[in-house]
Structure formats: structure tokens, C-alpha cells
Specification:
The chain has 392 residues and is an alpha/beta fold. It has 2 domains: 300 residues, Rossmann fold, CATH 3.40.50.1820; 66 residues, no CATH class. It is 29% helix and 16% strand. An 8-stranded mixed beta sheet has the order 1-2-4-3-5-6-7-8, sandwiched between helices.
Amino acid sequence: MRRSATWRGLSFVALMTGSCAQGQTYPNLTYATVGGTPLLLDLYLPATGSGPFPVVVWIHGGGWSGGGRFPAGFSGPLTAAGFAVASVEYRLTSQAGQYGAEPVIFPAQIHDVKGAVRWLRAHAATYNLDPTRFGCWGTSAGGHLSALLATSSGVAALEGTVGGNAGFSSAVQACADYFGPTDLLNMNPDVITPPGSGLDHDAPGSPESHLIGFDDPGQGIGVLRANQANPTPPYPALMTLVTQANPITWVGPADPPFFIAHGELDATVPQKQSVKLKDALSAAGISNQYWVVPNNGHGFGGAAGTATSNAIIAFFRQVLQGAPPPGPLAGCWANCDASTVPPALNVNDYQCFLNRYGAGLPMANCDGSTLVPVLNVNDFACFTTRFGVGCP
């Protein structure tokens, strides 16, 4: 079977990796050995605070075939907020033969990530970590693994034995997903134009086809979808595999809170993939926040990227540190979406604010970023600091 790096380098998120408020760093920690090859993680601790520290597991993107654990996304802002950050590596579909006879197709990736979480819990006392407060955050393929980690707690087929530590849980208590695939069989059908797609997800050379090992000429996700009811091998086994790989398969009432973000112009992973996850979580009664980032594609940059990452760090602070929701409570925009009692401003209010008022109201172009007032994502952060200034 061929392996390529179709998404190699497609971790386009603007990584905020600075060293601010970052304390002790433990690089190159071996959390497991697979086929004679070590799997590593890097651990970053806050510079202040006595701990034990809540942990955010960072999972890199790259189409399951590329990318790496360094640099660790947002390690600077997260450690400044009091979190330990564990940036983990996992087997890539482009690494066949590098782990002895061990496979590099799914579920290798989620087995590795869960093994890393169990290792971190097993060594929590050594590194001053709080084993009861774990979150995960990933981009693209890492977003997929982050969501899958959060929804598949206790699923035997996805737990694996990587690294041992079977007496420790791989569950997380909060999850952030940046534009991760959630329904691998239907990536192409979920594409809308605009923005269209820069990838043929049905092709045998697609990242999804490589992930399930159905990537020889004449194969691919598209062929599998056309044969999903075909009882002839290899289709039933492949359908089981691709279904197990979907985070939406495992959504249930015990899942942790989610924050999902997706670029409005993403032409790599269709936005509908995140909508499916949001809808499944909502149907299961799971708290979730969904943020569409205007004028951004497969990755977030500039002020919009900063605003989104700040909102996710605030989400982790609320869920894992017990921080109060963004406030104050006063102001006519607070709790626009009526999601909390008493009123508390949160990221859902931004979309509500847009839907209700649109451009042209006094708060449009609050941040002064455009010559002609146009409401955009940056205005949300601006108006939340002003609360009520210019409210109709």
C-alpha cells in the first residue's frame, strides 16, 4: 500500500508557542515503545503556581501522515494560564516499516494518543500534574484525534495497549477541536461551493484513504462509500474501521464539554464536518460551543486566530480550573443567546449578536479595522470590553 503526505504541512493554524510564563520543560519523554521505536512527548509546565497542574494534551495535524509534536501549539499562552501542556507524537501513515511489523494505519493513531494520556496520568505525581483535570486540543487531523479521544472513552477497540498503564484512564474532561474531520466516509459529499475543496477525499491518494489502508489503485474512500452495503470482503471490515474512526460514532451523554472552531472558507476539511459533531453533541445533551471564524480557511491567523485561541483558553479555564465565565454580567449584549442563568457572556453570544443585529449598528467596526464599518470577528472581543457602549 502506498503512503504519501498529501496533507503534510497542512497544520496552518497560527501557533502561539512563546515562552511567556513557561517553566520547566521536559523534552523527549518516552511514553511508549512500539515495534522497537520510542513514541515521545514534550511536557511544558507553568512558571508559577504550586500545582498539581491541569493538563492540555496537544495533538498536531498533518493529514495523519505528516507534522510533528514540535512546536507545541499555544504552549506559551496555556502555561501562562496555569496549564501543563503535553505535546504528543503518534504513528503516521507515511511511516510504514518504521515501527517494525506494527501497523501505521488506523487505529494506530488513537491507540498512541490514548497511550500518552494513560502515561501522563501514571506519572502525574512525578511531574506535578492533576490526573482529574485533562483536556485535549488539536488541529485538522489532530482535531479529529482530539474529538475522537474525547468521545471514545472506554471503547475497547480504540483503547489499545500502547505503553501499558492499563490501570489508568484515557478519558479527558474538556476537548477543543480545530476543523477536524468527523465523518470520514462523507468528506466529499459534505463539500459545498464556495469554498469548494482543494482535495479529492474519495481518491486512493487522499489522507482518509491512507488512514484506513485502502489506498491502492482502484481503491479509496469513494469506492468504499459506493460499496458500504456490499457484504463481500474487504468492504465489511473497512466499513467497521471507517465507522470506528468517526468521532460522531461515539458521541454519548458522558462526553466532556467541547469547543469546536472552523474557518468559514476552509477548502480542506468541509465545515459541515464540524456541524455534524456540534449537532451530535447537542442531541446528546453535551455542552458545546461552535465558532465559525469568518474569512479564514484551513487554519486561523491574525486577530481572528488570536480571538479564537483566547476563547478556547477561556473555555479550558472555565471547565478545568473552575474560572467564572467571561464577564461582567452587566451590559445589553451579555447573554444574547440566553444560554445561562444568570446572564453570562460567552462565545455563543457572538453568533447571536451577528444574527440579531448584523452590520451597521453602532458596534460595527468597534475595533476600527476597516475604513467602511463592517462587523467582523474582532469586533466581538472589542465590544465585550465595552459592554453596552452604543447599544440600541
